[in-house]
């Protein structure tokens, strides 16, 4: 029998996590948890840090937030099918999107009067302003996927004058009451539970994204679909077009407004644009 750990700062999260690690400072919660995953940390391990010195966003960008007013946390997902096998390769690419779905659902429940949007792949916005982002990192063992780490940065009580960009917001600015510690534990505990539920549905489908209808699950939450977008690709190229769908791998399908061709995008920064 596993005895739940208790952390006074995270009483809700620490009692539902398979293992809970609370660091005062770390370079990156994702990097720290990837290392623990390599040492055999169990599925459902959660790692939080009071301060990150080398937080990262998509495409290697730095992620910085004032200490004590934001949440930096990572969740380890290492699901196994009932047969004991790990998930098939086709399933792993969906976890970044499922992490975004989980967080959007939780914030929508906590702020029902706000317009909570999910921008592909997993940025959560309130009234079009970014409140959170996620970074997923695959853990590989013996050349095969073994686990994925879902890292999240969430603006909790950052004041307007300290927001990282003019297009950001925080939960406090949107009217969610509580101290940073209270909000961090409340949101994180619910996200952990929601991720667990989404993964359980995938496992019940024997790890098959089509059987679990992940295209439908994510599409129902993703506000990017149907919008005119600017896509900044890792190569440095820019694509302008309409986000028309998700493909069976979770990639964003964009109809290039210059050529009319459909392009499947696996990794990029996406900006929602006004219709021309």
UniProtKB/TrEMBL annotation:
PROSITE patterns: BPL_LPL_CATALYTIC
Pfam families reported in the protein's UniProt record: BPL_C, BPL_LplA_LipB
GO MF, one annotated term: ligase activity
EC number: 6.3.4.15
InterPro entries associated with the record: aa-tRNA-synth_II/BPL/LPL, Biotin_CoA_COase_ligase, BPL_C, BPL_LPL_catalytic
Keywords: Biotin, Ligase
Ranges for domain BPL/LPL catalytic: 5-199
Protein name stated in the entry: biotin--[biotin carboxyl-carrier protein] ligase
Organism: Frondihabitans cladoniiphilus
């Amino acid at each position: 029998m596993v005895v739940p750990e208790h952390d006074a700062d995270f009483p809700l999260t620490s009692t539902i996590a398979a293992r809970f690690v609370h660091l005062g400072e770390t370079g990156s919660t994702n990097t720290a948890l990837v290392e623990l995953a390599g040492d055999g940390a169990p599925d459902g391990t959660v790692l939080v840090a009071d301060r990150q010195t080398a937080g990262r966003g998509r495409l290697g960008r730095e992620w910085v937030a004032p200490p004590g007013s934001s949440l930096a946390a990572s969740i380890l997902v290492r699901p196994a099918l009932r047969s004991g096998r790990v998930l098939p390769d086709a399933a792993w690419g969906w976890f970044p999107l499922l992490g975004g779905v989980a967080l959007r659902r939780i914030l929508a429940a906590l702020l029902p009067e706000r317009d909570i949007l999910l921008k592909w792949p997993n940025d959560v916005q309130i009234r079009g302003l970014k409140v959170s982002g996620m970074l997923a990192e695959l853990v590989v063992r013996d050349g095969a996927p073994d686990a994925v780490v879902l890292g999240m940065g969430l603006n909790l009580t950052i004041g307007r004058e300290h927001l990282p960009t003019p297009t950001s917001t925080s939960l406090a600015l949107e009217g969610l009451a509580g101290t940073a510690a209270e909000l961090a534990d409340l949101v994180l505990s619910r996200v952990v539970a929601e991720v667990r539920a989404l993964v359980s549905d995938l496992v019940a489908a024997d790890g098959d994204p089509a059987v679990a209808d992940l295209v439908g699950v994510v599409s129902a939450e993703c506000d990017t679909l149907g919008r005119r977008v600017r896509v900044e690709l890792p190569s440095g190229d820019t694509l302008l077009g309409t986000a028309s769908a998700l493909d069976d791998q979770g990639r964003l399908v964009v109809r290039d407004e210059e050529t009319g061709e459909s392009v499947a995008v696996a990794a990029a920064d996406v900006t929602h644009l006004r219709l021309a």
